[in-house]
Design a protein that fits this description.
The complex is a heterotrimer of chains A (149), B (407) and C (259).
Chain A lengths: L1 H32 L25 H22 L8 H8 L14 H9 L18 H5 L7
Chain B lengths: L4 E2 L8 H25 L14 H16 L1 H7 L10 H21 L7 H6 L6 H24 L7 H24 L12 H28 L5 H31 L4 H10 L2 H23 L6 H29 L8 E5 L13 H24 L3 E2 L4 H4 L12
Antiparallel strand pairs in B: 1-3
Helix pairs in contact in B: 1-13, 2-4, 2-7, 2-8, 2-12, 2-13, 3-4, 3-7, 4-6, 4-8, 4-13, 6-7, 7-8, 8-9, 8-12, 9-11, 9-12, 10-11, 11-12
Chain C lengths: L1 H5 L8 H33 L16 E6 L9 H10 L13 E8 L5 E7 L7 H5 L5 E3 L5 E3 L9 H5 L6 E2 L18 E2 L5 H4 L6 H8 L5 E5 L6 H8 L15 E4 L2
Parallel strand pairs in C: 1-9
Antiparallel strand pairs in C: 1-8, 2-3, 4-5, 6-7
């Protein structure tokens, strides 16, 4: 009976190890597969370039963490009244709004919508937030005191 | 006392028909939810004056009845009426089913039901709603534990403890439900500590009425007859609970009639509130209180069982009317910002708000009822919740002494 | 136990156990796959960089309030309402399901016949009933006294609408589009007067105040109730003013004179 218990335990460890290895290997494989710029390797979402110029942060970092950054910023703005800082949603929209639709999520090719459609993750933000910069112009939206990166 | 619990063996006639009916009702309810969620609450009859409508009437009724449905089990485990022990598992099952049904309607009517995770992770503990999240889920947990002690023979010695905990929790839950309204200082209809004990009293009444219906239906469906003494006992209980509920309603209105500042509201409910006045007098008082009492107390009006089933149905109807008057009537009366002034504005100040229930709301509410039906029917079919014998000898029922209700 | 002696140790286990064994391995693998993303999320949460705040943000040293002089308020004038609707992107509709953040109320004392007019909006109470009842804490009071709805965590239960003595809150009944950049509003959440918090944070005044003074009525005064030198503090200290429903003891930030 002890032998059976031991072999069950060994199987359990093997299973866990397989599972964890799979999870560790797959994202790493995906990352090495993704090209840092331009050259497409396999299936990739079409990403329109932003109009602002310099990225707020490293694009790979933003891709991974923009949701957490937005979540922290929203609490700072909502509860703290802090409306500036480099992760302000208003500035994101102003910079990333596409030339064609003037929006970040109205059409399939727009900045936010393209990746989110590719990843099949529904965007909740623009049910409430404006997905277009204010008619007064991009500069008005960007005219918040920005923190030097 | 020894008793054996058995699932329903052969499906009784009409079992699958009823089950199918409940399933269709549930599907319609879920369809209504999808419709409301997609188009927004504008497709319902609710508006900025009446923000809680028919779904809340259903939900609060079901949740209140859930607490009361546990009463038979509590009586057997906590109050020493061991003759009800064989019926305790059914009572606990019904309590869980009713709570799940009510909770489902409540949660699906939210403006953002997709944010349920937020509701379970962000808490403002001063809000009775936040406390209710724990009270409702805790209730299910405690009653499941209670059921387990009843059905697992080795745990039977823990049944009194589990029953006691479930009873205390259920008192807290019903107090919490009544306090949802009682804590609202803004509205004349609420703003009263009396609402908590009122809800406890009506929970006993509604819960027993629903239990009687389910018991009688299950007995007919499983060909396990109920004894006359049991029916007489249940009838007497129902009388007591209807009277207790009416007492609190009486005190509530008498107090309001004493307070000059509440006279306008009382006139609205008792006299010139249109549908709300009709619901109060016809629904709550006549159908929900007077008629059932007459049926249960007066000797010689037909067979006892038919009288009991009819009064239970009337109590349920009266319960819905009471919830309608309380929840919707309380909102329709409106807020009084300037006592002694005539008020008018673009936002419906100073006028009685109008509300007409819409089909999606009704379907959502009935969907909750369907969940209760499906839950109970499937549980009875699959597991043993009903005792094999429910006649008086099996329950060791002592005949009721000099009771006015024996047919 | 007899089975163990009869079968050789190198033989695979008997059929029922191998199915069980397979399920066990599969379950363990699944557990591993399911756990790992959670580990990744924790990584993200801990790695999130701190926001360097350039603007000061709300402070409890300030308490924003308004003083409304009903005597200067003309019956039929809706300049404040129009300005609020324009500023915040409200439809201005008057259907029972439309949102109204501010409204004009005409009152007439029944006994004497005296009529008056005044605007009613969220009173920004210091002890808001709407904040007490919100289950998720979405309805909250900012440090500077402005009462807001955090629509990121509002679940749309409408309990705050039930609780507000002033009918200040509205529920959004239909999908919205073309929201103002500074005023996010969406279907399924509750909303109300924000005291134009997006303007106040820039050092400006709420739209209703500006509109009323621009039109020459000057019925609404906005300022810092905590600062004894502010116009509003001096005014409430010298002239009689009251809160609506003061019996509820909510200590509102909006006060009225002349009623």
């Amino acid at each position: 009976m002890l032998r059976r218990t031991w072999s069950s335990f060994v199987r359990l460890c093997q299973g866990l190890a397989v599972g964890l290895c799979l999870v560790a290997v797959l994202p790493a494989a995906a990352q090495t597969g993704a090209a840092p710029s331009g050259a497409s390797q396999g299936l990739q979402p079409p990403v329109t370039k932003a109009r602002g110029g310099q990225c707020v942060d490293d694009p790979a970092f933003m891709r991974r963490n923009h949701m957490a950054l937005l979540k922290h910023q929203r609490d700072d703005t909502m509860h703290g009244g802090v409306r500036s800082g480099k992760y302000s949603l208003k500035a994101c929209v102003a910079c990333h709004a596409s030339e064609a639709s003037q929006s970040v999520s109205a059409e399939a090719g727009d900045f936010c919508q393209s990746c989110h459609t590719f990843a099949a993750v529904k965007i909740d933000c623009f049910g409430c937030h404006a997905s277009k910069p204010p008619p007064a112009g991009i500069q008005a939206a960007l005219a918040q005191p920005q923190v030097k990166p | 006392m020894k008793f054996v619990l058995r699932p329903l063996k052969d499906s009784p006639q009409g079992f699958y028909l009823l089950l199918g009916g409940f399933a269709v009702l549930l599907a319609l309810g879920l369809g209504a939810v999808g419709y409301i969620e997609h188009h927004g609450h504008i497709v319902t009859g609710m508006n900025n004056q009446i923000v809680w409508g028919l779904p809340h009437v259903f939900a609060v009724f079901l949740v209140v009845a859930a607490s009361g449905a546990l009463n038979i089990a509590s009586m057997s485990s906590v109050f020493g009426k061991t003759e009800f022990k064989p019926l305790a598992p059914l009572s606990a099952l019904l309590a869980i089913a009713l709570l799940i049904g009510g909770l489902m309607v409540l949660m699906l009517d939210l403006g953002r039901p997709d944010r349920l995770i937020i509701a379970m992770t962000y808490f403002n503990f001063k809000s009775i709603f936040a406390m209710n999240i724990f009270l409702y889920s805790g209730f299910v947990g405690f009653v499941v534990a209670y059921l387990w002690t009843m059905m697992e023979r080795r745990m039977n010695r823990f049944t009194p403890l589990a029953g006691f905990l479930a009873f205390v929790w259920r008192m807290a839950l019903t107090t919490g439900t009544g306090s949802i309204f009682g804590f609202l200082v803004a509205r004349q209809a609420y703003d009263s500590a009396l609402l908590a004990p009122l809800f406890i009293a009506i929970s006993l009444s509604y819960g027993l009425a629903v239990f009687i219906w389910v018991l009688m239906l299950a007995s007919k469906g499983s060909a396990r007859p109920l004894g006359d003494v049991l029916m007489a006992r249940l009838a007497r209980l129902q009388v007591i609970f209807i009277a207790a509920a009416f007492y609190f309603v009486l005190v509530y209105h008498l107090t309001n009639l004493y307070f000059t500042k509440h006279h306008d509201f009382e006139r609205f409910i008792l006299l010139d509130g249109g549908i709300y006045t009709a619901m109060f007098w016809l629904g709550q008082v006549v159908l929900g209180t007077v008629l059932p009492l007459v049926l249960l107390l007066a000797p010689g009006i037909g067979a006892l069982r038919r009288r009991i089933a009819t009064s239970a149905g009337l109590v349920i109807l009266g319960g819905f009317a009471q919830m309608y008057v309380t929840i919707i009537g309380g909102q329709a009366f409106g807020l009084v910002l300037f006592p002694g002034y005539q008020v008018s504005s673009s936002f419906f100040d100073g006028v009685t708000a109008s509300y007409s229930p819409s089909l999606p709301e009704l379907l959502l509410g009935l969907g909750g009822v369907a969940v209760v039906g499906l839950f109970v029917m499937l549980a009875l079919r699959v597991m043993g919740f009903l005792p094999e014998r429910m006649d008086d000898a099996a329950l060791e029922m002592a005949p009721v002494q000099a009771a006015p209700v024996v047919a | 136990m007899k089975q163990d002696h009869n079968s050789s140790p190198s033989e695979p286990v008997a059929k029922p156990s191998s199915r069980r064994g397979f399920l066990g391995v599969a379950a363990a693998g699944m557990a591993g796959i399911l756990l790992a993303p959670g580990v990744r999320l924790i990584e993200i949460a801990q790695a999130a960089p701190a926001n360097g705040a350039a603007s000061a943000g709300a402070s409890s040293k300030v308490r924003w309030g308004m003083l409304i002089d009903s005597g200067k308020c003309a019956s039929g004038c809706t300049d404040c309402v129009t300005a609020c609707n324009t500023e915040n992107g409200l439809s201005g509709g008057k259907l029972p399901t439309d949102s109204q953040w501010i409204r004009k109320i005409e009152i007439k004392e029944v006994r004497t016949g005296k009529t008056q007019s005044l605007p009613m909006m969220c009173q920004h109470c210091a002890e808001p009933p709407c904040v007490d009842v919100c289950p998720t804490g979405a309805s909250f009071k900012r440090a500077d006294g402005i009462v807001l709805v955090d629509k990121h965590i509002c679940i749309g239960c409408r309990y705050c609408v039930m609780a507000c003595p002033y009918k200040a809150r509205s529920f959004v009944h239909e999908p919205l589009s073309n929201q103002k950049t500074d005023v996010p509003r969406g279907m399924g959440t509750v909303e109300g007067c924000t005291m134009c918090v997006h303007k106040v944070d820039k050092g400006e005044q709420p739209a209703c105040v500006t509109a009323c003074s621009d039109a020459g009525h000057g019925a609404i005064l906005f300022g810092d109730l905590n600062n004894p030198e502010s116009e509003i503090s001096k005014r409430v200290a010298s002239y009689p003013s009251r809160q609506i429903r003061e019996d509820l003891n909510l200590n509102t930030g909006v006060r009225y004179s002349g009623i």
